[in-house]
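Example (one chain per record):
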Amino acid sequence: MSGELPRPVRVFTPADLASADPTPGMDRAVAFELPLLWAGQVETEPGAVSGWHHHERNESSLYVVRGVLRLEFEGHDGYIDAGPGDFVHVPAWTVHRESNPARDPSFAVIARVGGGIPTVNVDGPVGRGRPHDTE
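Predicted structure:
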């Protein structure tokens, strides 16, 4: 970010996005980051499976624009799927991974609140190797 004073309202275009928070299998981009807010997007290619990770003290909200976002997370046997129009809440410190079981790329908008490290890549939970089957 530049050293200029913040504006009351600002539009961030696709040209303003920057690669962010690498996790294998996911292409994240940040629109902006403030002390307590991170906003961006993620695109996941068909069949891709992210590495296990958490978002430290950040509460994360995802809005699925297109495709299928499949989430597996510690403490839950199985997975949940979210599709276009769905919101997903990932609580702080939740170890999870996303995948795309569909034939088309998935795309989601992300907002994180908390001011922690945006993404921390970790080893997966014991006994959780391969992801669940794709479509």
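Caption: Residues 69 and 131 are 13 Å apart (CA to CA).
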